[in-house]
Prior knowledge:
541 residues, Rossmann fold, 6-stranded mixed beta sheet, 21% strand
Amino acid sequence: MISVSNISLRYGKRVLFEDVNLKFTHGNCYGIIGANGAGKSTFLKILSGEIDPTGGQVSITPGERMAVLKQNHYEFDEFPVIETVLMGHKDLYTVMKEKDAIYAKADFSDADGLRAGELESKFAEMDGWDAESNAATLLSNLNISEEHHYKLVKELDGKQKVRVLLAQALFGNPDILLLDEPTNDLDLETISWLENFLADYQNTAIVVSHDRHFLDTVCTHVVDVDFSKMNIYTGNYTFWYESSQLALKQRSDQNKKLEDKVKELQDFISRFSANASKSKQATSRKKALDKINLDDIKPSSRKYPAILFNNMSREAGDQILEVTNLSKKQGSETLFSNISFTVNKGDKIAILSKNSLASTALYKILSGEDTDFSGSFKWGVTINAAYLPGDNHSYFDGKKLNLVDWLREYSTGEKDEQFIRGFLGKMLFSGEEVLKNCSVLSGGEKMRCMFSRLMLQQGNVLLFDEPTNHLDLESITALNNGMTDFKGSILFTTSDHTLAQTVANRIIELTPKGNLDKLMEFDDYISSETVKMQREALIGA
């Protein structure tokens, strides 16, 4: 168990949280949520001892081992991959290194023999003889193939390094596991493996994530950072979100009788408990939900941006987009070839690919940014396509404009400041904030600016390349609602499972040897044995 007593953290006059008292117990997974800048990652650093709080203390049950997902991707560059994973169990790794050093001595003494015997005993108790094979299994489960296991970490690409560090944190069944954004740079297959791993995890896990499906699948509790306080709520993210929204609605409805409010909350808990059956932890979660005190449900102070796309310049006609035998190479690598499909009116298509460069290349071609390809595509004459790129650095780097002037550059019609401020206000930029220099914005702020720009374009077809990048949960939820409500067609690529499942009615998967095209929901697509066989046949053709 790990607990915090009267934890406070202040930076000058700014209070992140104050007088926090929480207990994290075995058999539970806690998802820490809060607006960007609320202190979620900072709290994990306090738990791990990386930084000291302003006040209070952290207590861990004696003898329990903590593992932390490292954020420095260069820390282990000079070590072999397999050894880096073994380092995750510090005590075991220390015994291994000392044992190896003794056996390597040229003048092996009796004292060395006694010490080696002690180390061998400890090594066996810690399951040391299976350590390397267990580490290799973890790496393989995280899609790091055996050919990479004995390379130096610096020889891997950035996404592979993330997986090695994740394997390091998971190695050796730690008693307490701290994971900060563990799904970043993982493909959907690997995220699914991690979800199953954590759903079966019997110890204490504490995670920070912006992935709603991940939080819903693995979390038994939510820790909400709000009002400079931290509170634990039973249930997953969706339960917390829907109950907090219900409580907010009730608080604003002053005329509603108390008994009606209580009944509404009770009915909500009952419905949600019944829907817990999809989780591996359903039984324990349902029991916990049944015991919820109605007083525990409180409104949130979160603000949700208004990401709205239905103000289209014109309604799209029946001819949307036709793609014929489209192929793209990058150097000697074929990203995709012979891609053909027709977009129909109202289609919302999730574009999938094992290689993220392939989907990005498709959007650049369709948006006119890239002309180096073979094959063809044709937009309908009524189409106004609006594109949100995955990498937006070129829109901000080197510019010395405030947000009003930055956004004004993308308005082809109205240039009035109040008109421009209105679009920024929808994305929660208000007052003096709109006078900030666009070059100093955070990643999340830049994305919100890009959505303001997109809404100005009034597109009737939307192209989205990883639109949830850098967004907080509130912005992701608003985006999800906006995409669901949009009356036009969308082509989008996302690592957000919930977004793909709730928006897409069609899936197109790009491969170096053609494409799969299925009119079905995302969950049905990834679980379909027929699709799996067709994919294997296509790639193996």
